[in-house]
Amino acid sequence: MLKVGLTGGIGCGKSTVSSLFEQFNVPVIDADSIAHHLVKPGQQGLTAIISVFGQAVVSKTGELNRAMLKKRIFSDIDAKNQLEALLHPLIFAEITRQLTLLHDVPYCIVSIPLLFETQSQRLVDRVLVVDCDKKTQYERVQKRDNLSFSSIDKIIAAQVSAEFRRNNANDILENSKDSSPLAQQVKKLHNFYISLSFSQDTTRS
Question: What are residue 157's phi and psi, to 5 degrees?
């Protein structure tokens, strides 16, 4: 099975791309979805966060106060490093577990927003980067998350550069406003990945 790592900067359209691949019945393992599950009440991730950051990051209903935690980690690099040290091993253990459950599929998508930052290329066979121009990126994030431009700047600064992603990608999806329709690009890649998977299987046999 060919494993394609999907990554890209905030607001570039990773979730949309994942959904388009899913329309072809391609399995998608999503690091963000795993992370969200791990910090639900009673889950291992939330327990670990509380042990380090205290009850102040939990709402009255027992849910993680994401806004408070985000504010904390974006103003304190040590807190950010602590959070990542808690969650990343749990997230990647679950990604590995889910990969072992996949059988009889040509390829899968492994969506990891911080793929390069966490040096997770070893988990996948190819890297697919979804990218867009900076103006479009800022507009999308501001509309979706209602963040100020300075907050968006901090998030982008904490990630590897768009140039680094493009230079280290096997495949690139352009998702700016003036790009070719995303669905068409995904369809071409879908067919390409199926052919690659076939070649991979032939080589191994």
Answer: -65, -25
Beta bridge partners of 110: 5, 29
pLDDT of residue 111: 98
- The residue among 169, 167, 166 whose CA lies nearest residue 121 is 169
Distance (Å, whole) CA 134 – CA 150:
14
Single pTM value for the model: 0.89
205: pLDDT confidence band, cut at 50, 70 and 90? very low
Structure tokens at 6: 């999907």
Count Cβ atoms within 10 A of the Cβ of residue 137 and give its class: 0-12 exposed, 13-18 middle, 19 or more buried: buried
Residue 169 and residue 166: Cα distance in Å, rounded?
5
Question: How confident is residue 80, by pLDDT bands cut at 50, 70 and 90?
Answer: confident
The sign of the dihedral angle between the CA atoms of 97, 101, 105, 109 is negative
Token pair listed for 112: 């990891």
